[in-house]
Structures are given as structure tokens and as C-alpha cells.
């Protein structure tokens, strides 16, 4: 599975554009008074204007799997990186054969840079914003994770990620190249104590050579 487009809300288009261009150094594709779109590798990442909603999302960017420490140092110069298990700031997902680190954007969204060692995506170029390969994960929040997972399988043919067993309040759908993280409402967004809430989200993704669209109304 691959996430082709991701659309989210922000209460501040101007500050969001500054963060994603100055800190992560994404290229701006287009902007209006009410939206801004960036090229995050192969994914089009769009923020649309909201008012006093204070939307918070959790999503991940894939980076070349030989650039984790270089990316860490690059981001650390620009913003604070979260501790996962203090004092460690790099999470080791050994079941997933991946490592990652986390930081906030200007909206309080929890962003993740993740290196997946099962993928053949190493790069010899110095790390910068153009090194980002895609948006590879987006969190979906629901009151009934198991039911939502079943609905996603029935509607979109999405199956459980082979490297992550199903849990009552946490189910991951997709493949190494694209994942939907299903969590129960009010569960802590890892690695923070931020409670997961559902906000409007739109995703265009490809799966089994078919392009499909999901819109979460919040």
C-alpha cells in the first residue's frame, strides 16, 4: 500500500507553511488563502484551514534506511526531539525491523521519521527535506478499533499488517510502504500523553494496483 495524498486540518495555514518549509524543508506545491500543499516525497501532503478546532494528528515520514542518525542530527538542530523511553530518543520497533524518532510540528501534531530496514531505499545523498520518501503512516481514531478494522477490510480490502499482531485497542493495516494506524479514542498517542481524538482526514492511497479514497469526517 502507498499513501498518495494526505489531507489534514490546521488552525494556522501561515504557521504551518513556515514550519514545513523552514524546518522539514518540504517543497510547496500550491497554496491559497485556505490551504497549502507540499511534496513529501511521493506523497502530496495538504493542510486545509480550520477554525478553533485545535486538530492533532499522528503521521510518519519514511526516510532512507541508512539515514536515521543523519536525519536525527538534522532535525535536532531545528526543533526538539521527544524522548521515547527516557533518556532514549530513538524507538526500536524490532518486530517491524524499523527505528524512528518523533517531534512536534507547529500544530502539536506528532511527526515521525522512520527508517524501515526491510525496504531497499538506502541513499548516498546528504539528508535534507528532499530525502523524505513518502508519508507512510497516518493514525485513524475510532471508538471501536476491531469494528473499524473489519469495515476497512470489507470496503477497501485492507488486511492487518503482517508484522503487528492485532490488539484490542490498536490495529495496523497495510504493508511496509503504507500503514493505517487504528487506535481507540483517548488512547495515548505514542510516545506522548496526548489523547487521540478524531479529526477530519482525507487519504488517497493505492493498494493492489487500485487507487482508493478514504474520508474521515472526525
Automatic annotation (TrEMBL):
Domain called VOC: residue spans: 2-116
SUPFAM superfamilies referenced in this protein's UniProt entry, alphabetically: Glyoxalase/Bleomycin resistance protein/Dihydroxybiphenyl dioxygenase
Superkingdom in the source lineage: Bacteria
Protein name: VOC domain-containing protein
Native organism: Flavobacterium algoritolerans
Biological classification of the source: Bacteria, Pseudomonadati, Bacteroidota, Flavobacteriia, Flavobacteriales
